[in-house]
Design a protein that fits this description.
The complex is a heterodimer. Chain A is of the alpha+beta class. Chain A has helices at residues 52-60, 67-71, 74-77, 81-93, 113-130, 139-143, and strands at residues 22-23, 28-32, 36-41, 46-51, 97-98, 131-134, 147-148, 160-162, 171-174. Chain A has 6 helices and 9 strands, in the order ββββααααβαβαβββ. A 4-stranded antiparallel sheet of chain A has the order 2-3-4-6. Chain A starts with 21 loop residues before the first strand and ends with a strand. Chain B is built from 17 helices and 7 strands. The chains are: A alpha+beta, B alpha/beta.
Chain lengths: 176, 398
């Protein structure tokens, strides 16, 4: 059974504590699975999926560590400093960490343009695969009925399936 | 286009489970593909599919239905190459969605159970999350649309009142004497994934035991947070799952997965006699469904429940269920849709009647549990005639 918990962080630490990122915990539903973490934001009704590396970075955001200190864990999770920068940026853009600007600058560890481009590509790839936004039915959709993939999933007065999401292939039962 | 006939289960004594005689209909063969993919998918570790396993486009459509998409993803993700990447991504998204939904339902159930308990009302959870949390490797593998909760007939009005305080959208006629079921939506910031609460006035249609006895035999719902919610005891739950499966013709594969998961997780002190309440007909119904779970999904009943799956399922039932699973989801329509189609699209009457013709399984169940295969078509005609008679008797109303 997957565990369910939220990352621990220093109690009382202000959210804007300089450049020490703090994992947001308020208004989040967190579901931890063996290989990833699913997070539902109750404010934006947006779901995000963190892979193991992003989960590790998010857990480190306890308000006591600077981005540089978080980067120092890169060898433990098989990521480069640029990977971690990209993950931090994505976490900030997703509203999952506070106290860090979404535009975290990569560490100046690249020397020439070719290496810089390669590092940037790696960071982007890491970001794309580490922090993903999931498509879920909107509250308005769900409030109007049950989730479905076809008319056959709808019973009673709500007997047709509409607004089928092209990604999840899920729609909502509605009055036919 | 390929028909789903090439999936092969690996392991010792591997055999082709899907290839059948040329007399199998397309829907039956698609249903066989569905059954092959779902075999054991609820367990922590399911038997792997061979590397050359493929699933046809039509079978993929059936397997992408919300009730089985997470199980499909789990099974096929362990067999790389069996699905196109786009399909795999969609299935995985459905699984993640279902995990979040299950987690939120767990939270909601804890809240609802506490509210009802505070009011002194015994409530029993069944199907849906109650099965997802106990019989599946992870709750998200078993999507649950609604939260099914039953209360004693005498507590129904009070329970509706309690839930009315924390829900919105109270349906018409909730307190009406003839109403035995109500759908409510929790006032919660989680409506997007939560589903509705399906409040039942007892569960007499799935057994004869008084509600108080069901409560006495009930067990705690397996949740991570120590929820006070309770669910039916194993005997009562297995009976309900089997009778519910027959009543609806078994068209949702996850219903049989529930039976299979229950057979594999019954307690050591499981009492078969308590399950069928000494009623031979009920026993026969449970036996045929449990046998289907073994034949079609490869269920491995614990010793205490093996008595229900000693004989193979009737061949006609096995084929009928597989055909149901292979049918496009849109063909499973409700009674209301039937009325609408007649009143709004009379020109389509014949095709709509064909689409809504009673399936053999539910017809045999309706006819009193005649599962020997004799007279099934007569039962279908009789059931449809009764439906039409009732429909006309109501003046075209529900």
């Amino acid at each position: 059974m997957p565990e369910q918990s939220k990352p621990t962080h220093q109690a009382g630490r202000p959210a804007d504590a300089g450049d020490h990122p703090v994992a947001r915990t308020a208004d989040l539903i967190v579901r931890r699975l063996p290989s990833e973490t699913l997070i539902y934001d109750l404010k934006t009704h947006r779901a995000t999926c963190l892979d193991a590396r992003a989960t590790a970075v998010w857990d480190e955001c306890d308000g006591t560590k600077s981005p540089d200190q978080i980067r120092s864990m890169r060898s433990g999770i098989g990521a480069s400093g640029n990977d971690i920068d990209g993950i931090l940026r994505s976490l900030a853009e997703s509203g999952l960490i506070e106290g860090v600007e979404p535009s975290v600058k990569p560490e100046p560890e690249t020397i020439d343009r070719r290496r810089a481009l390669a590092s940037l590509g790696t960071a982007l790839a890491a970001t794309a695969s580490s922090v993903m936004t999931l498509s879920v039915p909107t509250p308005a959709m769900a409030a109007s009925g049950n989730v479905c993939a076809g008319d056959g999933d709808c019973e009673g007065v709500l007997n047709i399936c509409i607004n089928i999401d092209p990604i999840t292939m899920l729609g909502v039962c509605a009055l036919g | 286009m390929r028909i789903g006939v090439t999936a092969i289960e690996a392991g010792s004594g591997a055999k082709r489970l899907v290839l059948r005689s040329g007399k199998s209909s397309t829907n039956e063969r698609l249903g066989q593909s569905v059954s092959l993919v779902l075999r054991g998918a609820w367990r922590d570790t399911a038997p792997p599919l061979t590397s050359d396993a493929t699933v046809s486009l039509d079978a993929q459509t059936r397997l992408a239905a919300p009730d089985v998409a997470p199980l499909t993803w789990k099974r096929l993700s362990e067999s790389p190459g069996s699905l196109p990447d786009s399909m795999a991504a969609s299935l995985q998204a459905a699984y993640r969605y279902s995990e979040l939904q299950a987690h939120m339902q767990s939270m909601a159930i804890r809240h609802v159970a506490a509210c009802l308990a505070d009011a002194g009302i015994d409530a029993l959870l069944f199907k849906g999350f109650a099965m997802a949390s106990r019989g599946y490797a992870s709750p998200g593998l078993r999507p649950a649309g609604d939260i099914d909760i039953a209360v004693d007939e005498n507590d129904y009005a009070d329970a509706a009142h309690v839930l009315g305080k924390i829900c919105h959208g109270t349906p018409n006629g909730l307190d009406a004497p003839g109403k035995d079921q109500a759908l409510l939506s929790l006032d919660s910031p989680l409506p997007a994934l939560l589903g509705q609460i399906d409040l039942h006035r007892g569960i007499d249609c799935y057994g004869s035991a008084p509600f108080a006895e069901l409560v006495e035999r009930s067990i705690a719902v397996a949740t991570e947070d120590g929820s006070p919610a309770r669910t039916l005891g194993d005997e009562d739950h297995l009976r309900l799952l089997c009778l519910h499966f027959l009543k609806h013709g078994g068209w949702k594969p996850v219903w049989l997965c529930d039976v299979a998961a229950m057979l594999e997780t019954v307690r050591d002190d499981f009492l078969p006699s308590l399950c069928h309440e000494g009623n031979p007909l009920t026993r026969r119904k449970i036996e045929v469904v449990c046998s289907l779970a073994v034949d079609i999904l490869g269920a491995r009943p614990r010793s205490a429940a093996q008595i229900f799956a000693r004989d193979p399922a009737p061949e006609w039932m096995r084929r009928s269920v597989l055909k149901q699973w292979g049918r496009p989801a849109g063909l499973h329509r409700s009674r209301l849709a039937f009325r609408k189609s007649i009143t709004r699209r009379p020109g389509w009457l014949l095709s709509d009647i064909a689409a809504r013709w009673p399936d053999p399984v539910s017809a045999a169940d309706w006819a009193g549990g005649r599962f020997d295969g004799w007279g099934v078509r007569l039962f279908q005609i009789a059931k449809f005639s009764r439906m039409a008679f009732d429909f006309v008797g109501r003046g075209g109303r529900i």
